[in-house]
DNA sequence: CTAGGGTTAG
């Protein structure tokens, strides 16, 4: 096994361990470093970026000053370090200072000129033409001011080259830094690297500002290996990163998902006497949020508390987002309360995070309270927040609130409803079964020129299908395809579920014709399943092929629908075959659960027909066990759930009526909604009484 | 965007 990062680091930058021998004047050292190494790596191993330990290996041997190495070599076991000579640090505690600008009395004139240059035609000739009209001597100060005011990056770059050619004064670091910053806006990493290499060849020193600009530009261009490479080069030249460069590189590792490296760097920094600022904590919080790692988020909170760093608004926002990703709506809510208690005012991003969390959790009460509070306190709104609130309303089924928001949006000066806003409305009316309103919005979209997207089309098609308005469904589908919408797996699943509900052959053919355009193999499978010449092996092959090409979250719905189609055609044996295939390919994990006292069937993610099929299958299995006189637990239960959505149709009702039809001795549990229970005492006689042969048919 | 780091949408 490769050495762990922390051991590799300790070789180069030893940290005193928190044992009894450690003198108290050592920098605080936590006894536990939180790092969830049980999680699988976030990134595939094929990445080019070497691990931090790999990078620090060459780095440490070249960058550690010799006297430190000598000291370490001479006293390898000593953990004592003279407090007046602080031990080897990984970052400079002093932030690089910037030279103050001398006031330039010609600011106005120069800025005006810079604007002229910025606005001129984007060609070298045009630019040089305007340059000839320069109103003042291009002295160092004047040139710097102009350089600073130019945009876009092409102009900055041209001007920078021009200054160099003129050769009026020596080029200094600041000229490169200013130019690089502009180039970064254009994500011109190659040019930035070119300039950096030029600095090296011309002996112009690269400082922390240069390095942090290079690193963040590489990061924004997703050139993470380049970011790390330049960080390493900085150490090699003997320059210590200050906290700005340091947190920039922390963010690079965080974006790579290298949690261990980030925590290690962070801890090394703290051990060097660094008091991380809110930006560093925001980087950590974001990283743990992306990993959905709640323990990590707690670690960040504890660190801030123990170091006495008060979160600012950005940190709160990042933490809220992270709590949402970690699936902790309750903690997000308390964090928000804490934010308000600390006297901060939430901004658009805060409220967007919270609205998303309440919507996903379907917390209607909190969602409504949030909206009321937003209105009464006049908290800021923007376009994204409007759309997120609309989506939240759609998730929860808040129809009137959504209508109000949509109206507000139309009246607002700064934003027009876009395809997201309309999609939310289509979702609200669609899932509420208000086909008329949904179609009204669909027509309005084409009037105001907002394009339908695949999700909106799916919502609309779903509600038209449920309402049995198949001709309109076909129309919406063809309009969507004509608009260039590429039907995705969800839309196909939606069409397939409508097929399963069609009552007439005619309607079914119309929907299948749509599906034929979107996913012909799926239609072929439906035909194979319903074919007189049914062959399980053929179906199995087709099924396998389709499922492996289907997005993960649409696989089970596909199988559910296919089972429903079989049942609607009274082909119950084939429904059982499909349930078997679905189980075989792992689409129904956790369907059966056993404890010593209770066996249960969890059909919460199954369709009505699939749940019925699973129940029958279970009963057949249990009957066999009874026949073989094997042991059975005291209790049996089947869980349908109640459906968290206001509009959800409730699997539990149909399941209950199916139980009734079978005369199975399951009772609706009194303490747990959506749960049906039977005792062994009641179930066994019933299983025995059923004739063994057509056990699966009703 | 008057030389550098962190946060918003199925």
Percent helix among the residues? 55-70%
Alpha-carbon distance between the termini? 59 Å
Round the Cα radius of gyration to an integer and report it: 33 Å
CATH class of the domain at 53-77 and 105-257: Mainly Alpha
Shape, per Cα inertia axes: elongated
Strand order of the largest sheet: 1-2-3-5-4
* Secondary structure tally: strands: 5
CATH third-level topology of the domain at 53-77 and 105-257 = Serine Threonine Protein Phosphatase 5, Tetratricopeptide repeat
The low-pLDDT segments are: 1-34, 36-81, 694-698
Structural class: mainly alpha
* Assembly state (oligomeric): single chain
Major sheet: size, sense and barrel closure?
Answer: 5 strands, mixed
What is the annotated CATH architecture of the domain at 53-77 and 105-257? Answer: Alpha Horseshoe
Number of helices: 34
CATH superfamily of the domain at 53-77 and 105-257: Tetratricopeptide repeat domain
What is the arithmetic mean of pLDDT?
Answer: 86
Strand content: under 5%
């Amino acid at each position: 096994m490769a050495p762990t990062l922390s051991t590799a680091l300790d070789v180069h930058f030893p940290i005193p361990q928190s044992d009894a021998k450690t003198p108290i004047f050592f920098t605080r050292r936590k006894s536990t470093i939180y790092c969830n190494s049980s999680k699988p790596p976030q990134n595939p191993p094929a990445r080019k970026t070497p691990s931090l330990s790999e990078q620090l290996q060459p780095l440490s041997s070249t960058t550690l000053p010799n006297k430190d190495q000598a000291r370490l070599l001479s006293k390898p076991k000593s953990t004592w370090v003279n407090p007046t000579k602080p031990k080897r640090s990984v970052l400079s505690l002093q932030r690089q200072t910037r030279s103050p600008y001398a006031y330039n009395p010609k600011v106005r004139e120069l800025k005006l000129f810079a604007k002229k240059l910025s606005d001129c035609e984007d060609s070298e000739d045009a630019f040089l033409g305007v340059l000839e009209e320069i109103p003042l001597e291009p002295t160092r100060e004047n040139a710097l001011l102009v350089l600073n005011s130019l945009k876009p990056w092409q102009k900055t770059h041209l001007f920078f080259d021009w200054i160099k050619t003129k050769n009026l004064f020596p080029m200094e670091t600041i000229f490169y830094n200013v130019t690089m910053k502009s180039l970064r806006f254009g994500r011109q990493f190659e040019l930035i690297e070119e300039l950096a290499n030029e600095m090296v060849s011309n002996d112009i020193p690269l400082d922390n500002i240069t390095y942090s600009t290079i690193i963040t530009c590489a990061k924004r261009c997703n050139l993470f290996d380049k970011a790390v490479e330049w960080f390493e080069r900085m150490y090699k030249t003997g320059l210590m990163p200050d906290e700005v460069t340091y947190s920039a590189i922390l963010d690079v590792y965080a974006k790579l998902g290298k949690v261990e490296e980030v925590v290690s760097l962070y801890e090394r920094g703290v051990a060097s006497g660094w008091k991380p600022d809110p930006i560093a904590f925001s980087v950590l919080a974001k990283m743990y949020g992306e990993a959905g790692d709640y323990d990590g988020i707690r670690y960040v909170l504890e660190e801030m508390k123990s170091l006495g760093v008060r979160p600012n608004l950005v940190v709160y926002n990042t933490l809220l987002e992270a709590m949402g990703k970690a699936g902790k709506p309750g903690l997000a809510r308390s964090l928000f309360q804490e934010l308000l208690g600390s006297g901060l005012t939430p901004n658009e991003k805060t409220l967007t995070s919270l609205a998303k969390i309440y919507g996903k959790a379907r917390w209607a009460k909190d969602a409504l309270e949030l909206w009321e509070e937003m209105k009464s306190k006049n908290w800021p709104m923007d376009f994204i927040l409007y759309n997120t609130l609309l989506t939240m309303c759609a998730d929860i089924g808040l129809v009137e609130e959504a209508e109000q928001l949509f109206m507000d949006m139309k009246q607002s000066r700064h934003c027009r409803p876009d395809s997201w806003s309309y999609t939310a409305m289509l979702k609200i009316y669609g899932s509420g079964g208000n086909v008329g309103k949904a179609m009204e919005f669909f027509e309005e979209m084409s009037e105001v020129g907002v394009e339908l997207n695949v999700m909106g089309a799916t919502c609309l098609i779903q509600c038209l299908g449920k309402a049995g308005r198949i001709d309109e469904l076909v129309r919406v589908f063809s309009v969507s395809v004509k608009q260039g919408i590429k039907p995705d797996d969800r839309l196909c699943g939606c069409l397939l579920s409508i097929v399963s509900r069609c009552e007439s052959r005619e309607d079914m053919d119309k929907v299948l014709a749509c599906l034929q355009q979107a996913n012909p193999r799926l239609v072929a499978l439906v035909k194979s399943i319903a074919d007189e010449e049914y062959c399980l092996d053929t179906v199995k092959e087709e099924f396998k092929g389709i499922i492996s090409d289907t997005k993960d979250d649409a696989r089970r719905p596909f199988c559910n629908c296919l089972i429903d189609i079989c049942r609607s055609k009274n082909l119950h044996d084939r429904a059982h075959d499909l349930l078997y295939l679905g189980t075989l390919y792992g689409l129904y994990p956790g369907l059966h659960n056993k404890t010593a006292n209770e066996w249960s069937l969890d059909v919460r993610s199954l369709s009505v027909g699939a749940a019925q099929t699973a129940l029958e299958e279970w009963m057949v299995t249990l009957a066999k066990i009874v026949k073989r006189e094997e042991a059975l637990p005291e209790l049996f239960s089947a869980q349908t759930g109640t459906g968290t959505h206001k509009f959800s149709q409730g699997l539990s009702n149909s399941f209950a009526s199916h139980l009734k039809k079978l005369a199975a001795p399951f009772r609706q549990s009194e303490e747990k909604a959506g749960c049906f229970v039977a005792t062994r005492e009641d179930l066994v006689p019933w299983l025995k009484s059923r004739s063994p042969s057509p056990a699966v048919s009703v």
